[in-house]
Amino acid sequence: MKTLDKKLEILRKNPGANEFIIADAKDADMAWGIACPGAPYPSNGDGRFYSMNEFMDQMREMTASGLIDIMLASNSVMSRLAHDEKLFVDSPVTPAIRANDTSDVWISRVANYRNKPSIPFRSADINEAQYGSLTAEPDGDPKVNLGLYSMTFNNDLDADYRSLVEFKAFREDAAKAGFDYFLEVFAPNVEDCGIPAEDVPSFVNDALVRSLAGVGRAHWPKFLKIPYFGPKAMEELANYDSDLIVGILGGGTGTTYDAFKQLTEAKKYGARVALYGRKIKDAEHPITFVGYLRALSEDKLTAEEAVKAYHGDLDKLGIPPKRDLEKDMELTDPGLSYAS
Fold first, then answer.
1. Is residue 283 domain-resident?
2. Domain of life of the organism in this record (predicted)?
């Protein structure tokens, strides 16, 4: 049994249980293009980015570490790792794909789509995710049976209506295929959406639970993924309905303390899942970084202790930190939108 399934089963029976789910979100090729794998560190100054082959090597290494519960990637990556290599067959890690790619995550180095209200779109196909082909007939258990579906509401009637129509279509397709999903709702991607910044958490919470009100619970998401807006908004959502397991997204890279403090604070106020992409990808040593995320999720040390210990480990590995300890202990605002 996958660790994700075990933990979800425990949390369904006891929402106050101490179980915590960690996902490595390596689906950046659905957004960033050539730059998606990030740049090698330390840099030699040539300006190159990792190749997708190198990026997939990082996914193989992270999966083998046993530190995560979910590996989230694109359909194209999972066609290699899950279907061709069968990487997850004997692994406790659950493979997942990004099931849609709305226009606010189309982040090119030169184009600019993200300042317009999000338009729903799906380039991924469920049958292809499950069985490795658009035309393959179901044969045994699917190799991938979990997807991330995301929506971004902007207080724009036409745009938000289209998002809900497409969400309904996705749910119908997923239900017919027996495909599980988890639901992500971003903060508005349009800066001037008519909602004051202090009201955005309420807007996101309301939009999220309203979008599920017409959905039978048998087809609710396995869990949620939202920005961490702070204690009040997290407690409000976590306490709304015990059938909703709430998770957080990482947002921008930020400092090491940003990531470690965010996880501990979000967990304290009700989150039971953390899905980190850039915070893991951009770390000096991702495996060591995730090891501390896991320790923090198990309440083995404080965020402050974890940052200091992480710097100690970097020193032992001979890896220069991106920031000195004092700077890396600062709490910054890495942003809440996907493009931050």
1. yes
2. Bacteria
Q: pTM (2 decimals)?
A: 0.96
How many domains does the structure of the chain reveal? 1
Three-state SS for the chain is: CCHHHHHHHHHHHCCCCCCCEEEEEECHHHCCHHHCCCCCCCCCCCCCCCCHHHHHHHHHHHHHHCCCCEEEECHHHHHHHHHHCCCCCCCCCEEEEECCCCHHHCCCCCCCCCCCCCCCCCCCCHHHHHHCCCCCCCCCCCCCCEEEEEEECCCCHHHHHHHHHHHHHHHHHHHHHCCEEEEEEECCCCCCCCCCHHHHHHHHHHHHHHHHCCCCHHHCCCCEEECCCCHHHHHHHHCCCCCCCEEEECCCCCCHHHHHHHHHHHHHCCCCEEEECHHHHCCCCHHHHHHHHHHHHCCCCCHHHHHHHHHHHHHHHCCCCCCCHHHHCCCCCCCCCCCC
Residue 142's CATH number: 3.20.20.70
Domain assignment of residue 332, yes or no: no
Write down the pLDDT at residue 261: 96
12 occurs within a structural domain: yes
Per the structure, the complete domain to which residue 165 belongs is given by: 3-300
pLDDT digits (tens, 9 = 90+) for 5-39: 999 999 999 999 999 999 999 999 999 999 999 99
